[in-house]
Each structure stands twice: as C-alpha cells, then as structure tokens.
Design goal:
Helices cover 66% and strands 0% of the residues. The protein has 2 helices and no strands. The longest helix is centred in the middle third of the chain and has 20 residues.
Length: 58
C-alpha cells in the first residue's frame, strides 16, 4: 500500500512539472539571468515569484 501511495505522489508531481514546465523555466531563467547578477552588483531587486508575469510587478 505504501508503494502505491508513493507512486501516486510521484505521478502527481511529474504531471505538475510537465504542465508547469513553461513557468518553471521562466522562473529558472529569471533567477539565474536577472536576480543573481543584480544581487552580486548590490542592487535591491524584486523577488522571483511563481505565478506572475514580469510586466505585472508594480
């Protein structure tokens, strides 16, 4: 029973990753290409947030 529940959790996670792949890659690229370099320069940059588009931040 435990193995079956573990497999279900893995499948749910896998499905989530596949369906949110575009957003996950946007967050990954935003973090490494914008956030880290700006922090290294000493700038105060907005956080990398799931579920927002770059132009929506005020």
């Amino acid at each position: 029973m435990t193995d079956i529940l573990s497999a279900i959790y893995i499948l749910i996670t896998f499905i989530f990753i596949i369906t949110k792949q575009k957003e996950i890659m946007r967050l990954f690229n935003d973090f490494w290409n914008r956030f880290i370099p700006a922090k290294e320069r000493g700038e105060n940059v907005p956080d990398v947030i799931f579920g927002t588009i770059e132009g929506e931040l005020e």
